[in-house]
Design brief:
about 325 residues, alpha+beta, 7 helices
Length: about 325
């Protein structure tokens, strides 16, 4: 025994199997070395004995949590893997058939169906190899569509100027017609106006069924009044007339023909007015030059101005007159 060992450091003798503690008297204390040697001298336990003697783990209990809702809480289920659900064979068969059908439907081309009567429509189907191309259906009564295109031509400056001049003349003629219509509405028939010496002022006009005057022009027209003034200035106021249609304007009785008649006779024409001359307008009208003002203005006397078939007097600028026909020789 180690002299340093004290009774506190000694251990008790390990009891042997089948020996009670009461029999082990007197009490003997062993040292640590003796205890270790005694343990090593014990026979080794078998694996089954070690498993039996091993401490067993206590089971873990999961507390049940009560639901705060109205429904009762479901009983606790054991923690672990859920059982695998088995699929019904019918559902599996439907899924196997449906999936290829969806792909086939998406791959099919779109076809149009049009009901048709026999003999009304004609169809054509073209084949190329193993592929079939859809045909176009056309009605037998369909007509061909023709495309028409308007032509285009450039306009020169001369053509533009001519068009502008024509438009200006048409506008002037329209304004003159409007003025004539307005004057005719205020015309007074059957009354001799002051300064009017025309002897047939109250005779019916052509539109009223009247005929020709002794000068062979229609009554109360501009040409008949001017022919009367030319005869008066020549001293002829009776049946032996100096100037009539036959000797004055044999080419035609309209005022538009008077300028060419003067040219054919070789009589004088000018842009300068003189008293007793004929004021010729290019819109089929003639008037008598009664006087010339100090400012160069021209006082005209006329009949049927603006379609009135009455006596009329006005003052114009010489530039407003296309040509002055001097009294015939």
């Amino acid at each position: 025994m180690n002299p340093n060992d004290t009774p506190r450091s000694r251990g008790k003798l390990l009891p042997e199997s089948g020996v009670s503690d009461s029999a082990a008297s007197p009490e003997v204390f062993l040292t640590r070395r003796e205890l270790r040697a005694q343990r090593e001298a014990l026979p080794a336990l078998s694996p089954a004995t070690e498993q039996f003697l091993a401490p067993k783990p206590e089971p873990v209990v999961v507390p049940t949590v009560r639901s705060r809702g109205r429904l009762p809480a479901s009983p606790s289920k054991p923690v672990g893997r859920f059982p695998r659900k088995r699929r019904h064979p019918v559902k599996i068969a439907i899924a196997v058939l449906a999936i290829p059908a969806i792909f086939l439907t998406a791959a099919l081309p779109a076809y149009a169906f049009t009901p048709r009567a026999a003999g009304d429509l004609t169809s054509a189907t073209h084949s190329s190899g193993n592929k079939v191309v859809q045909g176009l259906t056309v009605a037998a009564a369909a007509t061909a569509v023709t495309v028409s295109r308007d032509g285009f031509a450039a306009t020169t400056k001369e053509q533009l100027a001519a068009q502008a001049l024509a438009t200006k003349k048409a506008l002037a003629a329209q304004q003159a017609a409007t003025a004539r219509a307005a004057a005719a509405a205020f015309a007074v028939y059957g009354v001799r106006a002051e300064g009017d010496d025309y002897p047939w002022y109250n005779m019916p006009t052509e539109s009223q069924g009247g005929g020709l005057s002794p000068l062979s022009y229609y009554y109360r027209e501009c040409v008949d009044f001017v022919a009367w003034r030319l005869n008066r200035d020549a001293g002829s106021t009776g049946s032996s007339w100096r100037w009539t249609w036959n000797s004055l304007t044999p080419g035609g009785g309209n005022a538009s023909a008077w300028a060419s008649a003067w040219s054919n006779h070789g009589w004088t024409t000018s842009k300068t007015p003189v008293v007793g001359a004929v004021a010729w307008f290019n819109y089929n009208h003639v008037a008598y030059v009664q006087s010339i003002g100090g400012d160069g203005s021209v006082v005209l006397e006329e009949y049927n101005w603006m379609g009135s078939h009455t006596y009329h007097k006005r003052t114009v600028s010489p530039s407003d007159v296309a040509l002055f026909l001097y009294p015939p020789a």
